[in-house]
Specification:
Mean pLDDT: 90
Number of helices: 14
Keywords: Periplasm, Signal, Transport
CATH architecture of the largest domain: 3-Layer(aba) Sandwich
Main location: periplasm
Structural class: alpha/beta
Protein name: Putrescine-binding periplasmic protein
Subcellular location: Periplasm
Helix content: 25-40%
Low-confidence stretches: 1-32
Pfam families: SBP_bac_8
């Protein structure tokens, strides 16, 4: 979990001032209920600018787009009080937390007829069993990517990354659950772990791996891999696929150990000032041709079954995950009070 300090507090205050200028008061109530505006809070490199432009042109709604680099950063901002965000895109286990704390608006499904395009396998999740607060966006897994042109060692799993060949040449996700989870997987422990002893053990392993880690990167981990500054990395599946597009020497490896699966969903934060605009945008994104455009730019798993039908064979292959890997992996879940332990260990690792 990211260590949140002065930088995050500053960003929160800046966002608050910016969105206040957009017509939102401190309580989150919009000064103009029919204002042609939409404030989106999303991961970086996760929504093509072309999609935003098409939505703006068609609807006349101005989109203000702000990014975050971790679920923790997103959660911290939403927890600080409504800053005027109309849409956020958290991962399921953070949606569990947001729902428990009554931080989400119920979605009016009548305003989203394109829900019919979704694959039922991705709805009714553990985070939102009745689909009251969420709409699936994209999903994927944590994988290993290796530049086989400069790596001599054969890599089959996370444990191979401890080899001295990788000294100061690994890029890791800015994600405590994924990074510590990889260490838990090596030991054969559950990834959604609440056992203090096992988590501490995984933390010590991650500290031992640190000499091999060049960078923790939540925004553009593929960059170091593409340029050859990093020999290998643990990253999200589409990041690895995009790296391979730019550098054919990149090999994507589905670890022999268990790994994290994840799904990101649209949510509407409590007190969103432009709720109907948010629902209009979600419906727009669920159009098969728009969802297809998103997957072509960012080849994560797509829960829009009608969009997948429109994708080329090459893109579908980039998005695919082997069945045996899927079956031995786990969706990240909320670990309750144990989150504090993950946070402490992560802080120690990053020092």
């Amino acid at each position: 979990m990211r260590k949140l300090g002065i930088l995050t507090i500053t960003l929160v205050l800046m966002a608050s001032l910016f969105l206040s200028a957009c017509g939102t008061n401190s309580s989150g109530a919009d000064s103009k209920s029919n204002e042609k505006m939409l404030n989106i809070f999303n991961w970086s490199e996760y929504l093509p600018e072309s999609v935003i432009q098409k939505f703006e042109k068609e609807t006349g709604i101005k989109v203000n787009y702000t990014t975050f680099s971790s679920n923790e950063e997103m959660y911290a901002k939403l927890s600080s009080g409504n800053l005027g965000y109309d849409i956020a895109v958290p991962t399921l286990f953070f949606i569990e937390m947001l729902a428990k704390e009554d931080m989400l608006e119920k979605i009016n499904k009548d305003n989203i007829p394109n829900l019919k395009n979704l694959d039922p396998d991705f709805t009714g999740t553990f985070a939102d069993p009745n689909d009251e607060f969420t709409v699936p966006y994209l999903w994927g897994a944590v994988v290993i990517a290796v530049n086989k042109e400069i790596v001599k060692k054969g890599v089959k799993g996370y444990d191979d990354l401890f080899d001295p060949e990788f000294k100061n040449s690994l890029v890791m996700p800015e994600d405590n659950r994924a990074s510590i989870g990889a260490m838990l997987a090596i030991k054969g422990y559950p990834i959604n772990n609440t056992d203090e002893k096992q988590i501490e053990e995984a933390g010590e392993m991650l500290k031992k791996l640190k000499p091999n880690i060049k960078a923790f990167d939540g925004d553009n981990p593929k960059g170091l891999l593409i340029t050859g500054e990093a020999k290998a990395g643990i990253m999200y599946s589409a990041e690895a696929a995009l790296a391979k597009r730019e550098n054919p020497n990149i090999e994507i490896i589905f670890p022999k150990e268990a790994s994290f699966l994840w799904q990101d969903n649209f949510v509407i934060p409590k007190g969103a000032p432009h709720k109907e605009n948010a629902e209009k945008f979600i419906d727009f994104v669920l159009r098969p041709e728009i969802s297809k455009e998103i997957s072509e730019a960012y080849p994560y798993g797509n829960p829009n079954k009608e969009a997948v039908k429109l994708l080329s064979k090459e893109i579908q292959e980039e998005m695919s995950i082997p069945k045996d890997f899927f079956e031995r992996s786990e969706y990240a879940r909320d670990v309750g009070e144990t989150t504090v332990l993950y946070d402490r260990i992560w802080t120690e690792v990053k020092q």
